[in-house]
Amino acid sequence: MIKLKNILLLFGMALSFGIQAQNTYKNWPDVIRKNDAAWFGTDEAKNIAENVLLYQREIGGWPKNIQMQNELTPEQKKDLLKLKKTTAETTTDNGATCQEMLFMSKMYAQVKDDRYKESFLNGLNYLLEAQYKNGGWPQFYPLKKGYYTHITYNDDSMVNILNIIRQVSEETDYFSIKPSKAIVEKAKESFRKGIDCILKTQYRQNGILTAWCAQHDEVTLAPANARAFELASLSGSESAKIVLLLMSVEKPSPEIITAVQSAKLWFEKTKITNLEEKRVLNDAGKVIDKKMVVTQNAAPIWARFMDLSTNEPFFCDRDGIRKKSIEEIGAERRNGYSWYSDSPKEVLKKYTAWAVKNGVKITSKESSESQKSNRITVALDGSGDFTKIQDAINACPSFPYEKVTVFVKNGTYKEKIRIPEWNSQVTLIGESKENTIITFDDNFSKINVGRNSTFHTYTLLVEGDDFSVSNLTIKNASGDNGQAIALSVVANRVQISNCLILGNQDTLYLSGKEAKHYIKDSYIEGTTDFIFGSATALFENCEIHSIKNSYITAASTPEGTAFGFVFKNCKLTAEPAATAVYLGRPWRIYAKTVYMNCDLGKHIRPEGWENWSKPESEKTAFYAEYNCKGEGAQNAKRVSWSHQLTKKEAENYSTENILKDSIPNWYSGQAAIK
């Protein structure tokens, strides 16, 4: 009898040890998701729950990347108690807060400890409070400076939140804790707004809806950068979970149906079926190298980062320089990051059943043909549809309903090109900005048609509205021989990105009394008044390069116009010979030019601005700076009639305010064409 008792005792100890051993996981998410329901009533689970309660801040959120199952020392517990009243590092990134709420729900289902219930409800309130008015969520709340304020789909952050909000709003049994009716109503509205935000942030590429980016600007909803190696791009990974969320909505609206259809087509278009990832592991099972191997008929995968204009996969190291393959980046980023994903295969697998259930016709062939007809390729070697860019423009439909893309392969195109008014919605994309070059050499004297000869000197003239150009060089090659325009824009809603605009005097002409233009991530060089005109234009993250001593801008802003030329986060550089350059002078007396958060080189003159022998313009023109740095930012020595903006004044210079037009958010690629 004693022997039998001992056997039973030993068996019980082994069983108890086995239960604890199989539930002692290396990673905190494993503790939450892989334990049987009954385990959440054990002493081990209760001990872990005490840690989770300690890590939760009073605001309701938790920090990320904490192994909460690890035992805490008395000193660590004291430190955590001090942090509870703070909001240090509360986030939804990497599953934080969402996973802890799930843990507390599982605990409460087994142990009716009111602290678990309050913890869950606090977390829910945190999620509801953190939501932006437009329906998105930041990565950190309260807001943390930097890219953390962007609407964050990265690592499925916003999808995780919305899945919780939906369970609450639909009063399902997924969570053991039942909020009040008032909270349920808040959750319903929160979910509606979240879905609306998703629909509004779906990226429109050349007029066609595609997928989503890992981050979107919280104000403009435009694609946004995060860390140096996380540049704005279409995401093959995060987009999949977003689409699956939309597909799970009962009785989807026409807008949701369109979003799912468009994303599915994009997944079909961008899948990679000739590459496989091969991992090299060390003895401990850690990845020490990754390689992409060419394989016939490989299972489909998608790149995590794809170019916003061309869908071409790219890869970045911590220097932020785009590469075409993971082999070109360092081992730390190559092996420590997920560059490819097969997540979209779940969308493709479920799509047909979803379509049948919701009465959606499968029209992928028709959509494919539509996309094909709206794309024209130009190549000097004859491999495209045309060998000249102007011929491609002439072949574009007049006043089309959707964007028409003209893709230009590498080469030097010696053409004088005009985009007429009737060729609206043209997107001109080069294969690369350094090697796709449009060049011509007209100048004032060569044209010689009278006092207005300048306006006939262009290399590229844009008259059609809703034009965009990227990834190429536009050059006036006449040299320093007087007025000679490289790019002339007399249309509305024109976007210029990742371009080199090269010339001397009058390089870039931006016209139109009510016209709005957005120039970003580009290099512009010239001599005298090399950025001039009457349009409202926002320059962002550009390099403005002066070749000799002269003037950068010559705005002719019409009277009563709210904004003229605005430079944000730009770098002003110069040739060694240029040592005395003015920020601007007024071509017309109501000129407006503002530099904000710019790096001004030492070539900028201390007085900054010049009146062009028009003393009256000192009372009518508006020249200002805000928070600029560099040797050229000599605020105290500026002319008395210029301005240094206050922080409150600077807040008015938002992208939305500067570029506001009849088509909302036209500059972010999100606006529907009317």
From TrEMBL:
<dbReference type="GO" id="GO:0030570">
    <property type="term" value="F:pectate lyase activity"/>
</dbReference>
<comment type="pathway">
    <text>Glycan metabolism; pectin degradation; 2-dehydro-3-deoxy-D-gluconate from pectin: step 1/5.</text>
</comment>
<dbReference type="InterPro" id="IPR033131">
    <property type="entry name" value="Pectinesterase_Asp_AS"/>
</dbReference>
<keyword id="KW-0378">Hydrolase</keyword>
<dbReference type="InterPro" id="IPR000070">
    <property type="entry name" value="Pectinesterase_cat"/>
</dbReference>
<keyword id="KW-0456">Lyase</keyword>
<dbReference type="InterPro" id="IPR018040">
    <property type="entry name" value="Pectinesterase_Tyr_AS"/>
</dbReference>
<feature type="signal peptide">
    <location>
        <begin position="1"/>
        <end position="21"/>
    </location>
</feature>
<dbReference type="Pfam" id="PF09492">
    <property type="entry name" value="Pec_lyase"/>
</dbReference>
<protein>
    <recommendedName>
        <fullName>Pectinesterase</fullName>
        <ecNumber>3.1.1.11</ecNumber>
    </recommendedName>
</protein>
<dbReference type="Pfam" id="PF01095">
    <property type="entry name" value="Pectinesterase"/>
</dbReference>
<comment type="similarity">
    <text>Belongs to the pectinesterase family.</text>
</comment>
<keyword id="KW-0732">Signal</keyword>
<feature type="domain" description="Pectinesterase catalytic">
    <location>
        <begin position="376"/>
        <end position="660"/>
    </location>
</feature>
<dbReference type="InterPro" id="IPR012334">
    <property type="entry name" value="Pectin_lyas_fold"/>
</dbReference>
<dbReference type="InterPro" id="IPR012669">
    <property type="entry name" value="Pectate_lyase"/>
</dbReference>
<keyword id="KW-0063">Aspartyl esterase</keyword>
<feature type="active site">
    <location>
        <position position="529"/>
    </location>
</feature>
<dbReference type="InterPro" id="IPR011050">
    <property type="entry name" value="Pectin_lyase_fold/virulence"/>
</dbReference>
